[in-house]
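Thread: quick sanity check before group meeting

JM: Hey all, I'm pulling together slides for Thursday and realized we never actually wrote out the predicted structure for the chain we discussed last week. Dropping the sequence here so it's in one place. If anyone has concerns about the input, flag it before I start.
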Amino acid sequence: MILNPIVYCEASSALVARYDSQPDKASTYWSEEEVTPVRLEIKAYYIKEQQHLCCYCGIPDPSIHGLDWDVEHVVPQKRRPEFMFTQVNLGVACKECNGSKRDKETLVDPSASAYPLTSDAFLVVHPHFDKWSDHILRDHLTYASFTKKGKWTIEECRLNRSNERVIGLQYPISDSRYEELVRSLLAGGSTLQQIANHIRLSVPIDIAADF
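JM (edit): ok, ran it. Output follows.
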């Protein structure tokens, strides 16, 4: 959970203020050259604030050069460009999580006029408003959810993508019975490799048919 949202430097604050004062805000502004220092400031801040953990999968990456990270807009700027520089809408995510989530709707009420400041307003596990472990269980690269938000995040960010590759399943792991199986195996003390072997050998055909 991100406890301290970014406080922009003076130059960035001025740029953000100019953008926020414009009646028509374009999502493409994020890629403009004049925004580069702000993007770099945001990325560097949240890499450190998140202790080099992706805000969705929670996998650590010690990289400090930034090329492994994407600035994450929890509510995508293409959907709501007015939230582009809202501090609690920002974080960093690994490229695979960010690439899977893309521009998917994350608001329970997409018509909200102002940026919501409570957890229950979001479909996704929010890095500023949610304690990650309240929603998602991770054992190495195996994920299961405790809540609807956890399930949404696992599925839409494809957190079990590594297990899909290791296990060799042809379809995304999204069936709730998979989560129930993982939880029971974790509760019994199984390791990731044991879970992978068990699922590879025993995953029911009807589960695959549901994908």
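AS: nice. The chain has eight helices and four strands. The mean pLDDT is 87.
JM: adding both to the slides.
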